[in-house]
């Protein structure tokens, strides 16, 4: 009855409000093993005003509302464990304005990062945050996404300058301004970025752009062990070398990528690096990095100076996930990420490697090591409860290890449904403060319930 | 009676809780024209536990509590319009730990930025945020301070990685971790940075450090008009040149600095720039900047390659405030700052310049133009109500102009008491959201009342 009353209020959406079984099923899927109840209704708004009306109607009827971008979350952020309405933003995917002098772009939340960069190509500017998946910008903001380029350009935290947000009651607020910085009150932009749809629905984003680099140079290099690779990363950062990317692949990841992409990278722990700048500065940076890498015993250095070679290198990196999935035929994955202080990175990676090696399942490790961030892709046979339990215990120990080493249970994937159980351990009393903020902004608990904060 | 009961609860502080008239008077002063009622009591805690006990006691007795760092706020942040307890952090000023590999330092809030950098000198690292004044790190975090180097190294928003905070009820939370990034829940660090003591009292900060640059080069260069100087800044940013500082001084500021420092800079709109990097990259950046500046008609280029020359240049810039004050003997100042999108900077500065020129009072303009941030130092005769009213109207129009141009009422000075009246205009309904967060975390409204949020 509630649903019918809600649908009557949303009649203005016409066929952009649907209970079609196929649509509900699509919005009940996730990229990983996480599953939940399906939504009761999926809506496809086309404007902020429509989103505001949807939120107000959901609040009137006490129905949960959950945003949906591109469905690429790895922790079940867009699933609906309590049913309700999924607000699919794929029809709000416009570039609203580009301000080249201010190096800003204003977009709707449904646009994907690849299409955004296609639309920006002619401007000489680009949006750098690159989580691998072709995620939506709204989703990327809501999970505080980052990826391969965060070491140079920052995460969504640094690259979202302002937002338009629809709150639970349907009111619309704007956070931030178009000025590069501000000291005018609480940083609501930063509060919303990473809030996983639990405080509001983003309907517009103002994003920082960066100049397309004049020159780019990339390389892969191999190390005798994980510790040497990580020590090389630390030394590079301390030298102040402005790397654009510095990625780590363990031997299992390299093997999977070789098999998938037809490459012949040495079966050793690898770093993939990239430098951006003027031709002279890129050459200097590359030379200095080469010196450092050799100090740490690096071999098998391969420079990718031509655009074609770089494209191949990063395509391989971006396809690491399907490559690793394919390395165990028929498998599904628990993809888990943690982030630790750089000084603890070697210990964290080596302990995790040993823990997985001692288990019955495979789990390649790779990551954005310039940020202290790494992932394990734990491969389990679907419907094998024993393997799933093993993988969950491995992931739990990985999270506990990160906390013990002064880190965090997730560097970039977020909490969603998958990591709710570790929030108390990471934040202690501060998790209660998050709950108080949630309560203040969404007293009925209708915005993406079951995620990030403790359920009342 | 309330005060006596509170003091009884705080007896454990001994003579570190005082009602001495001189101490109260000192904590009722501000750097600017803003004045308020004195505090009733000043306390000097030495530990987080003492701060927690103070907060709990204040809450029990319904007494306001206001933090005090170095007293350098320009908007009356540390004043006590409702009396109560001033919590002076000058005895909590230790460097608690340095983690060179992670490029992090953990400090207490009372340490000043100059002393922090002295203590870091031997490590090869430094803390870059430089608001000019020798402020405390706790105060800098609470106002989201920035300054001359923000264009390269970011503001306090980017350089505070984690906090320990005492809440109104005396509970202690930790925000953030020692990992370089995280997606684990609401960004409470960012919420606290810039909250001006209205949500909690910072008792510990984890700060990002940066490598001391291998090579540094600085220069001053003159332009025919403000527009040419600003267009040069825009072009430099769009080229992706990684400037460490890019500062603007108008003619009145240059004249004041010349008189104060015995320099002979040309009486024209000036840019002061600095580049950090390897010797080769600094040389390349400087050369490229020189080319751009000449394209915009710059003359009077002076390079300061020697450490001594650079020290003199930045000393002059840091002493611009006393120099400008001295340019009108006996005057006091309204120091106001706004921040606009870079594309609107020339218009904002030129309109402001014309507005001040049409008024009866002097008001040099200078600023961190790489951030779109500039200041007017409006010089008024003390106790001249007419001049003060003129200055306040000029400051109000400057704030309104910034908002009209898509900017913010303050880039780095914060709201405090001075800018509360503009918050509704900048934030609209979002100011109400700030009030809801305040209400959730400090329901009795005891933490720095009269600042940032609407008074209930």
How is this structure best described in words?
The structure is a homodimer of 456-residue chains. With 456 residues, chain A is an alpha+beta fold. The first copy, chain A, has three domains: 1-212 and 419-456, 2-Layer Sandwich (Uridine Diphospho-n-acetylenolpyruvylglucosamine Reductase, domain 3); 215-321, Alpha-Beta Plaits, CATH 3.30.70; 323-414, Alpha-Beta Plaits. Chain A has 17 helices and 18 strands. Chain A has helices at 2-9, 21-26, 48-61, 113-120, 137-142, 150-153, 156-159, 188-192, 226-238, 251-261, 279-295, 307-318, 320-326, 345-357, 385-404, 423-427, 429-441, and strands at 17-18, 41-43, 65-68, 85-88, 95-99, 104-107, 125-126, 160-166, 172-176, 201-208, 210-211, 215-222, 243-249, 270-277, 299-304, 332-339, 365-368, 373-380. Chain A has a seven-stranded antiparallel sheet with strand order 15-12-14-13-17-18-16, sandwiched between helices. A five-stranded antiparallel sheet of chain A has the order 5-6-10-8-9. In chain A, strands 1-2-4-3 form a four-stranded mixed sheet, covered by helices on one side. In chain A, a hairpin with a 4-residue loop joins strand 5 (95-99) and strand 6. In chain A, helix 1 (2-9) packs antiparallel against helix 3 (48-61), helix 9 packs antiparallel against helix 14 (345-357) and helix 10 (251-261) crosses helix 13 (320-326). The radius of gyration of chain A is 22 Å and the shape is globular. Chain A starts with a helix and ends in a 15-residue tail after the last helix. Chains A and B meet through strand 9, helix 8, strand 11, helix 9 and helix 11 of A and strand 9, helix 8, strand 11, helix 9 and helix 11 of B.
